[in-house]
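Blinded run. Sample ID left blank on purpose so nobody reads anything into the name before looking at the predicted structure. Input follows.
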Amino acid sequence: MIEKFAKSHDAEPKITAFSEYGREKNGLRFPSRNYSGQAYIRSDKRKIVNARIYVVYKKYKFFTVETEVDIK
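Blinded prediction complete.
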């Protein structure tokens, strides 16, 4: 779909994505934010922005899961 849209608008796709892992618990990193963008640069250098998605992760709830083996 990206290539089809780009071709129909005489443009080159420019896809941007990044994730930031700003939370840490017990040596594991967890995402704090994420960004994805979909844009197209036309032959006349104008930019078409088709999508921007920002996700911010907050209020993590950490918990411990314990198990027990019962051998009968």
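Unblinding after everyone has recorded impressions. The chain is about 10% helix and 50% strand.
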